[in-house]
Amino acid sequence: MSATYSNNNLAIIILAxxxxxxxxxxxxxxxxxxxxxxxxxxxxxxTAISLNPYRxxxxxxxxxxxxxxxxxxxxxxxxxxxxxxxxxxxxxxxAQAEGMLRNFDGDVMILCGDVPFLELRTLRNFLGHHxxxxxxxxxxxxxxDEPKGYGRIIRNKQGxxxxxxxxxxxxxxxxxxxxxxSGVFLVKSKLLFPALKMLSNANSQGExxxxxxxxxxxxSGNKATAFPGADFQELQGINSPSELEQAERYLNxxxxxxx
Length: 259
Known about the structure:
Elements: E1 10-16, E2 34-35, E3 38-39, H1 40-50, E4 55-60, H2 64-74, E5 80-83, H3 90-95, E6 107-112, H4 120-132, E7 137-143, E8 152-155, E9 161-165, E10 179-188, H5 189-196, H6 213-219, E11 224-227, H7 241-258
C-alpha cells in the first residue's frame, strides 16, 4: 500500500539535454524524436504533471530552444528550464537545477526525458516505497534477462542497496547481475546537491555519474533503497532508430490491448 504523500513535498527534474548521436538526426534533440507523432519528452512531461508536484525543472542542452519552444507550446503547466552547457554526465546535469530548488525542502524525483513509458502508477508506488522506508535516496529498478548496457544494482549480503555500477565500469561478476538501474531516483533535496558536489569523473566515460551519489550518501550514514517496482518495458530508453521502431510497436500493441 502506498504512503499518502503531499505533492508540495515533491519536485521533479527531467533530464533532456542529450544529443542522441545514434538517432542519426544531427539537428534534432533525442527527446524530440517521435513515437506515434508525439515526442518522447511529451510522454514524460505528461506523467510528471499527473503527479502534481511542487515544481518541474527540465534540464535542456543540445538545441535547447527547440525543446523549450515545443514544451511551451505543448503544455499549459508551469515548467522551468535550466541549461547544461556541456555534456558532462547525468550528475552534472542534475546539478544544474540547484538554483531552481534552493529553497525547496522535500523529495526530488529524477526522470529521463527519453524514457517515455513509465506509468503513473509505478511512480506513485515508488514514491510510496521511498517514504514508507524513510529513505534518503531510492532508485527504481527492474530485472532484465539480458541486462547488457544497463547499470547494475549491487546489493550487500543483507540484500540492501550498496552501489550502482555502470556497464562499462563493471567487473565480469557484476555484469552477471540482472537487476538494473532505471535512471529514476528519489532523493531528499537537502542531501542531493551537496552529494552532487562530491562526484568525481574518474571513470571510463570521464563523466559525473548521478549513480555515484548512492555510495556518497551511504558513506555518510544515510539510508538507500532499491525498489524493483517497474516492468522492464516501462524503463526502456530510446537510443537508436531501431529502438524507436520497437517502442512504437510496443505502444501500439499496448493500446490495442486496451480496446
